[in-house]
Design a protein that fits this description.
The complex is a heterodimer of chains A (327) and B (293). In chain A, 78% of the residues lie in helices and 1% in strands. Chain A has 327 residues and is mostly helical. In chain A, strands 1-2 form a two-stranded antiparallel sheet. Chain B has one domain: Orthogonal Bundle (ABC transporter involved in vitamin B12 uptake, BtuC), CATH 1.10.3470. With 293 residues, chain B is mainly α. In chain B, helix 1 packs across helix 6, helix 2 runs antiparallel to helix 3 and helix 9 packs across helix 10. Classes of the chains: A mainly alpha (327), B mainly alpha (293). The interface between A and B is large, with 41 and 45 residues.
Chain lengths: 327, 293
């Protein structure tokens, strides 16, 4: 166990070192930087989604929070002229407030209802933003968002990348601290058996709402970062795709682990970009869909559990293999 | 705004017709949930496939699109049964969130296979009865609306007879009431899973055909909005309750059309969600839902 902990620490440091060094090694290549920035933003987003599942809840509409964070941050930055580095936190707070509202409606619901309500919420908010609030949001055309760092600064993408990476590291450390504290224990108690948790003096409603708010907050933060990085925001941000990405990343990586969303995001993003360079437009969605189905059926604990599964099954394979050879 | 009786009745009829498609979707969802305790989030995508199957046969054969129900329902039943066998069977009973994740994978697969086959442009076909209207009192009702309402009633009555009057229907109901007990009396529950998923998918296919016939546009990504409405109906009516789905569907269809009339078209899609929230605040298990597991 101690060995394992040390291994995890080394792996984490190695990943971080890679994240810091890759832009420098590749000579500040713009293509790699854009891939890395999106990857890190989605690591925050996927981790935020994953945080919700610790409390036994799930959401199919996190794009709602992602988009609300983006829109609020953009609108405030445009109206007030504050730096986006300040307004992203306000965007997150706005998303958290909406998250609390949805949480209050959903908190006593079972998984299916929760999934349906969140799924529906993202679809509806897209309609509202595109049509009802058109005067503020610019309808389907969207609005321009001020960049994190003005593009007149030389190598601005590099600064953006490192600042986003720093935020991601802080966010993940924050999640880690929370999950290793009393809150994390309460979450797993609620997840395993809500009735027993209540008997042990834990108020499930309070903790579930907390999980929803924290998750929505960081999803909103990630959304705001993405929007300021892209430089514009349209209602497409509430799309079903944006809701599903964090789920796909978290599941393929490993649900309910801190490393899962990170590994999942890295692997799937690389795969996605690889398939894109092969020229598969619809095919890559189908491949991602098939991977998701296969992972849920054959590797329910995600890529994180892959070494363990191989260790467990290797002896069987060895026997089979030697049998084949002896024939 | 002053709404006269004739406008009121007219909107009621529109609501009935709009509700029909939602009812077919929601009934399928409820049937599947009742038997398997699984919610298929890719149900709207089955409607989309149904719409394209109808479209393809219409372009190929030129038959009256209503007749093509005879093509879309069986094809969707086959697709539904394969989905159940390949995707949902292996994860049954593993974890409540897994079926949701499988559905997401299915949504990706179905939408993009459709986009590969039929491209992602919006399509529409015209019903042969498009310009015919029936005048009842002071109301003018397109004949298509009436045919759609009648077709839905026929399908639902057939489903009712199947569930209540046949031995197979009895077995489906038994499985949905108590899976273990059904197993004990010798019902092959896995076959019931397959059957209910197939029927659910077939109903979605019928909804797809009716969607096309009523002159609504469709593309490979249109499935999520009708699916969201079907979910809303399922929650409003109570998960697993087929009468609930019918009443919820009618309520939603009528409410939507009154919203268009009074507040404006943009709120049409949002109203389902507003009703949903109000119902959940008042009665978290839905209007006709069971109290607890």
């Amino acid at each position: 166990m101690i060995e394992n902990k040390r291994l995890v620490l080394y792996l984490t440091l190695a990943t971080l070192a890679c994240a810091v060094l890759i832009p420098l090694v590749t000579g500040l290549n713009v293509y790699y930087l854009t891939v890395l920035i999106i990857m890190v933003i989605f690591i925050i987003y996927a981790s935020a989604w994953n945080f919700l599942t610790y409390s036994g809840q799930g959401s199919l509409g996190h794009a709602a929070f992602f988009g609300i964070g983006g829109y609020i941050s953009t609108l405030i930055a445009v109206k007030s002229g504050f730096s986006p580095y300040l307004t992203i936190f306000i965007g997150g707070a706005g998303a958290a407030a909406v998250g609390l509202f949805i949480g209050i409606i959903c908190v006593r619901m079972k998984e299916w209802f929760l999934a349906m309500v969140t799924f529906g919420f993202a679809v509806i908010i897209q309609v509202l933003v595109a049509s009802q609030f058109r005067t503020v949001t610019g309808g389907w055309d969207g609005i321009a968002a001020p960049p994190l760092i003005s593009s007149t600064v030389p190598n601005y993408l590099v600064y953006e990348y490192y600042s986003i990476l720093l935020i991601a590291v802080i966010v993940i450390l924050l999640f880690r601290t929370m999950l290793h504290s009393k809150i994390g224990l309460a979450f797993s108690a609620i997840r395993e058996n809500e009735l027993e948790a209540r008997a042990a003096g834990i108020d499930p409603v309070r903790y579930k709402l907390l999980a929803f708010m924290v998750s929505a907050y960081f999803a909103g933060l990630a959304g705001a970062l993405e929007i300021h990085y892209l430089g514009y925001v349209t209602p497409e941000i509430f799309g079903v795709d944006i809701s599903f990405w964090p789920i796909i990343y978290s599941i393929s990586g490993g649900l309910g682990t801190l490393a899962g969303p990170i590994i999942g995001t890295i692997v799937i993003t690389l795969l996605w970009d690889g398939l894109q360079s092969l020229g598969l437009t619809y095919g890559r969605f189908i491949i991602i869909g098939v991977i998701l189905v296969l992972v849920v059926i054959f590797l329910p604990r995600g890529l994180v559990s892959l070494p363990e599964e191989i260790k467990k099954r290797a002896p069987k394979w060895k026997v089979r293999f030697s049998k084949l050879l002896s024939k | 705004m002053d709404i006269g009786l004739d406008i009121f009745l007219q909107v009621m009829v529109w609501g009935l017709y709009a509700g029909c498609i939602y009812i077919l979707l929601a009934t399928g969802l409820n049937l599947i949930f009742g038997v398997m305790k699984v919610v298929n989030f890719a149900h709207g995508q089955l409607l989309m496939i149904g719409a394209y199957v109808t479209f393809s046969f219409f372009v190929l054969t030129g038959f009256n699109p209503y007749v093509l129900l005879a093509a879309s329902i069986p094809i969707l039943i086959i697709i539904g049964v394969s989905i159940e066998r390949l995707c949902f069977r292996p994860i049954l009973g593993t974890g409540k969130l897994n079926e949701i994740f499988i559905s997401i994978g299915l949504i990706y697969i179905l939408e993009n296979v459709a986009a590969m086959i039929w491209t992602d442009e919006w399509k529409v076909i015209q019903s042969p009865f498009e310009s015919i209207t029936v005048t009842i009192g002071s109301m003018k009702i397109p004949v298509d609306y009436l045919i759609i309402i009648v077709t839905t009633v026929i399908i639902l009555v057939a489903l009712y007879i199947f569930l209540k009057k046949t031995r197979l229907g009895l077995a489906v109901r038994a499985t949905s009431q108590n899976r273990k007990a059904a197993m004990l009396v010798g019902i092959n529950v896995e076959r019931m899973d397959m059957l209910s998923f197939g029927i659910g998918a077939g109903l979605a296919g019928a909804a797809g055909t009716l969607w096309v016939v009523s002159g609504q546009v469709f593309n490979p990504y249109m499935g999520s909005v009708p699916a969201v409405k079907a979910f809303a109906i399922v929650i409003i009516g109570g998960l697993g309750s087929i009468p609930g789905a019918i009443i919820g569907g009618l309520l939603l269809g009528i409410a939507e059309n009154f919203t268009v009339l009074t507040i404006g078209g943009a709120w049409k899609d949002a109203v389902a969600f507003l009703i949903l929230i109000i119902v959940l605040i008042i009665k978290p298990t839905g209007l006709f839902g069971e109290e607890a597991e």
